[in-house]
Amino acid sequence: MEQHVNVVIIGGGFAGVQAAKALARRAPAARVLLLDRNNYHTFTPLLYQVATAAIQPEDIAYPIRSILRRMRNVAFRLTEVSDVDLERRTVQTDDGSISYDYVIFAAGSTTNFFGTDGAQDHSFGLKDLSEAIALRNHLLGTVERAAAEADVAKRSRLLTVVIVGGGPTGVEMAGAVTELVRLMIRHDYPMLDPAEVQVLLVEAGPRLLGGFQPKLGDAALRYLRRNGVDVRLGQAVKVVDESGVSLSTGESIETPTVVWAAGVEARGLVPGLTPAPHANNRLAVLPTLQLEGHPQVYVAGDMAALRQGNALLPMLAPVGMQQGRCAGENVAEQLAGRAPKPFRYVDRGVMATLGRSNAVAQIGPVTLSGFIAWLAWLGLHIVDLVGFRNRALVLVNWIWDYFFLTSGARVIIAADKKSDSD
Amino acid sequence: MEQHVNVVIIGGGFAGVQAAKALARRAPAARVLLLDRNNYHTFTPLLYQVATAAIQPEDIAYPIRSILRRMRNVAFRLTEVSDVDLERRTVQTDDGSISYDYVIFAAGSTTNFFGTDGAQDHSFGLKDLSEAIALRNHLLGTVERAAAEADVAKRSRLLTVVIVGGGPTGVEMAGAVTELVRLMIRHDYPMLDPAEVQVLLVEAGPRLLGGFQPKLGDAALRYLRRNGVDVRLGQAVKVVDESGVSLSTGESIETPTVVWAAGVEARGLVPGLTPAPHANNRLAVLPTLQLEGHPQVYVAGDMAALRQGNALLPMLAPVGMQQGRCAGENVAEQLAGRAPKPFRYVDRGVMATLGRSNAVAQIGPVTLSGFIAWLAWLGLHIVDLVGFRNRALVLVNWIWDYFFLTSGARVIIAADKKSDSD
C-alpha cells in the first residue's frame, strides 16, 4: 500500500497559495491540505480601494477552491486554526485535529495597535475584506449624516478623517479618501462644502513611506499636501476614543473616523512559541524558512522573521509569495531526500498609489513618481491579478471609475445578522 | 417671498423613485424629499441571483443620490421612518420630525410568515440585499461544511434546501439553487455527489406560479422536476425549527436551509391606520391612489390595496413603478389646481426564469416558455436596468457566468461587526 505524506498549509494568502502551487508541481505524490478561515483569497493590495468604494469587494476576492481546482493533490478546508502541537505534529482546528508530516505556517498578520489606548476599539483596521467593507459603510454613512447636520461643528467633525501611519497603506488611504469624499460632494451633496472636509495623515517618523527612498516620501508628501491632506510628521496618536484622537503634541482632533494603518504584527498561530525580539510577533526562521529544531515546520510570509543583509525582510506581499513558493519547494526537496535550500528575496520594487493618476515607485535603482509611476502601478496590478477571474471586471470598474467618475460601489450594504445555526 | 410646497416620499424603491421622477418633471417648484433607510435603490427582481452567487450585490444596488442627481428639486435623506402623523402632517424619523404638504407612502413590503411557527426565526427571507447576502453566505457555507462531513446523514441534511412558496420567487430560487449547488460540486467539490443534493419546493396551492396562466405553471413544474427539484404541491409548511421543517402531511425534512418565499405583506408604516381586510397589510386607496379622507396622502406600490377588475392589483415591481409615477403626477395635478386622475394598471406581462436558459413568460394573450422566454426575460431586464450604472457590469457578469460557468461571486464575505459609534 502506498504511503502518503500529509502536508498542511495554514493560510490561503499570498504565501499559502504559492506554497500549494509549488507542492502541486513538485510533490504530486504528497497529500496537501490548505486551511483558511475564509473561502476566498484576498488581493490585499487593493483593500484600500474597497474601503473607498472605488471597486467592489468581490472584485478582489477569489474562491480558494477555484485557485486549487487544477492542483490534483491539494484539498481545502474552511476552518479556523487555534493551535499547533509541534511534538504530536497536529493542527487544532474548529473541526478537530489534523495530523501532518510537514506543515507550512502562512497565516499572515493582523493590525498592530502597539497598545495605543483605545485604538483597537475605536479605529478601523484595513487588513481584510470585512474590515474594508465596514470602513466603506462607515465612511459613506458619515457623509450622509453630515448632509443632514445643520450644526457646523458637528458637521465638521463628521467630515474629518484621521489616518494613522504614513506607510504605503496610510498614504494610499489618504489619497483615496480625499478623492472619494470630494467626488461624493461634487456629484451628490451640493449642500456640503468640499472645504469642510479634513483628511489628516499622522506619521510618527520624520517622513512618509519610510521604507522607500527619501525622494519618493517627499514626492508623496508634496502630492498629498497639494491635494489638501493635512500631513503631520513627527507626531504620534496617543489616545483614540469616541470623540476622536489625541496627539503627542497635546492637540485633540474630533472625528468619528480613525483608520489605523500604523503597523501590522504576525498572527500568533502557536501560543507556545516565542516570537523573535523586535519583529512584530514574527517567528525567527532558518534561512531555509524552517523553524529551528523542527525540520518539518516551515514559516512563510508575514509570520516569518528572516534577516537578509542588514535588516529583517519586510512584511509585504512579494516577500510572502516568494517565501511561500520556497517553503513548498523545500518540502518537495525534503520528500525527494535532498536538503532544503536557503531563501533569497528578489526585490522587484515597491510602489504606492497617491491618487487616480499619481503614484510613486522604486524599482531597483530607478525611482518614478507621477503619472508614469501610476501607469507602472496599474500594469503591475493587472499582471498580478492574472488568474483572477475578476480581472476583466476590475479593469472595467477601474476604467469606469477613473474616466467616468461615476458612483462606483458607493452603497452601504451590510449582510443580515441572522444567526447561522447549522 | 416664494412659498414652497414640501412633498415627502417615503421609500426609494420602484414606486418612490418613479414618484420622484414624475415630480421633478411635472412639479419643478415643489420641494421634494425622498427618505429611505438605505442609501441605495435595489433592483429586487434579481435578488435571487445575488442569493445564488450568480452576480454581485453591488450590481443591483444603485446609490439613490446618483438616481436623483439630475432632479434639481429632489433631495434625499438616509433615515428610518417610525410613524406618520396625518393630522399634524409630519413624518417621524430617527433624526426628528419632517413636515409635509403632500406625502407619498412607498415603503414597500416585507416577508409574510403568516404566523407560521418558527418561520421568522429559522428561515431566510429574500426581500432585500442584506437578506440575499446572508442567504448566499449561508448556502456557500453549508456546502463547505458538507465537504468536511464524513457522516452520510449529516451531509445529506446539509445538502438539503427547502424553498417555501411556488410563486415566481420560489420558482426562480429553486431553479437557481439547484444550478448553483450542482455547479459548485462539479467544479470544486469532487468529494461530494450531486445525487446527494435535495432541493424541495413546497407550495400549498394546486400549482406553481398561481398568478400565471396554468400552462406556464405546468411548464415550470415539468422543468424543475426534470432538473431534480422535488416539487410538493398541495402541501404546507407547518413548523420551521433548528432541525428543519414539518409539512402538513406529517413529514419532517431535515435541513439547515429554509427559504421563505411564500408571501409578502405591506410595511406597517403608520401604526394608527387599519389595513384593508385580506390584503396583506395593504392600505385601501381611492382610484387616484389617495388615502380616503386625506387628499394630501398618496400610497403607491406594495403598500397600496387597489382593486382593478375583479381582483386587487398584485404586489409586483411594474405595478409599483406605474403607481409611483401616477402618485407623483397626481400631486403635480393638485398643485396645478386640477383634480388627480385615477390609476389604471397597464399589464405588460409577467415572467419567471427557471434556469440559465429557460423561463416562462406571459405577455398579454401570448405565453412563452423555454429558451425564447428566457431571451425575452433577459431583454426585459437589460432594458429595465437602463439608467443603472452597473448595467454593463451585470451584463459582463451574466455572460461570464452563463457561458464560462466560473466561480461568480461565490465568496462568503460578511461586513465587520465593529459598532459604528456616532
Structure report:
Two copies of one chain form a homodimer. With about 425 residues, chain A is of the alpha/beta class. In chain A, about 30% of the residues lie in helices and about 25% in strands. Chain A has eleven helices and 27 strands. In chain A, the strands form nine sheets. The first copy, chain A, has a six-stranded mixed beta sheet with strand order 5-2-1-9-21-20. Chain A has a four-stranded parallel beta sheet with strand order 13-12-11-17. In chain A, β12 (about 200-205), α8 (about 215-225) and β13 (about 230-235) form a beta-alpha-beta unit. Chains A and B meet through β4, α5 and α11 of A and β4, α5 and α11 of B.
Keywords:
11 helices, 422 residues, disordered C terminus, six-stranded mixed beta sheet, alpha/beta, homodimer, four-stranded parallel beta sheet
Give the SSE layout.
Two copies of one chain form a homodimer.
Chain A: E1 6-10, H1 14-26, E2 31-36, E3 40-42, H2 47-51, E4 61-63, H3 64-68, E5 74-78, E6 81-85, E7 90-93, E8 96-99, E9 102-105, E10 109-111, H4 119-122, H5 129-147, H6 152-158, E11 160-164, H7 168-188, E12 198-203, H8 214-226, E13 229-233, E14 237-241, E15 244-247, E16 252-254, E17 257-260, E18 264-266, E19 283-284, E20 290-291, E21 294-299, E22 304-305, E23 307-308, E24 311-312, H9 317-335, E25 350-355, E26 358-363, E27 366-370, H10 371-384, H11 391-404
Parallel strand pairs in A: 1-2, 1-9, 2-5, 9-21, 11-12, 11-17, 12-13, 19-22
Antiparallel strand pairs in A: 3-4, 6-7, 7-8, 10-18, 14-15, 15-16, 20-21, 23-24, 25-26, 26-27
Helix pairs in contact in A: 1-9, 5-6
